[in-house]
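seq:
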Amino acid sequence: MSAVNKVQIASDAENNKNLDGILHRLKHLFSAIGPGLLMAAAAIGASHLVASTRAGAEFGWQLAWVILAVNLLKYPFFAAGARYTAATGESLLHGYQRQGRGYLLLFTCLNTIAAVASTAGVAMLTAAMLTLFVPLSIDLLALIVLLSSLALLIFGHYALLDKLTKVIMLCLTTTTLIAVALAFNAPPIVNPDFISQSPWQWSYIGFLVAMMGWMPAPIEVSAWNSLWLLEKKKTVQVTKQQAIFDFNFGYLTTAILAIVFLALGALVMHGSGEHFSASGVQFSSQLINLYSQVLGSEARYLIGIVALLCIFSTTVTVIDGYSRTLNMGWHLLGNKQASEKSLVLVMLGVSAIGLAIILFFKGTLLPLLEFVMILAFMTTVIFAWLNYRLMTSSTLAESDRYGWKMKCLSMVGMTYLIGFALLYSLSIG
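struct:
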């Protein structure tokens, strides 16, 4: 064998080795992805399918910059979950406790209220989507949705939730991107004499606050991300860089998809003279019609199934996330060890109270969702403050604390949250 051939073989071997190394690192990186996508799945449910689409349908593109601004200004408060856990190996709730028992108690009490309200909202939305396929009342379907979610969580645990979410997210994202791309090329539907209303009126302050309350999600979701990351670490070694990448990937996905859903409403429904119904059954039908108008009527049921699976995954993640944080919070306050059995009991309790709220609202979907979103916005100032205080405290190593850029962004974010909370209080006063 010639010297040239030997050099070539050695070079090929080195290249293959480098390629194998890159593929191994990529495989390990993507195996660490999970908590961030779960957060995205929780966000896409009501804030995207409902709030973003409705914003586009009602006001066209006018609120696109608001959605992007909200995602940016809330970023430091959401990032706290992944960053704190990656740095310390413990959850945000342990961090609150280190700040003082009163901080953990405040978080847990507010989180309990948010848990039952949010569970009711997403479960009713899932039941409303299910009416497209099953001719039963929303109340009965909501019970079926909650029981199915509990069965999946109790018997499938985190591993199944992690895998299921990735598949559903991919399906819904692909379908929505295709629908929006086709909508851009479709003939305009705006009536010649149509004049778009401005969202900057007192009468719309409730809608604006509701939209921003769950955009991209309630800030307490940061604690879910923290606990999901700890669960992920039980099966996969996750470095600090991977944890932050996973969070950023999921968060960026939610921001982009929020604009995509707004585009769908703006391109297909804005200016048509049609408005979303408060009835859960009619709202679901209208939402699927948005897709079928651009993808074709034959795709109606396929889209319905994808949307249903998306909302169902949101319901599952909401029940799991809130229950985990409540279970951990109350046990830390009682100086007890949280267990799988106590987690199941919390899931059952949250689901039962959520069902009671659904029965109270009697199938009126949009009022329930608006109530839940406004509640989220009014409490989000406190959750944001708790996370900021933790990420700038001396309990963290200096290298893991927020630097001046994140501090400045946090201050702007807090100003915005407090400002809109005061505006809403004045509007109802």
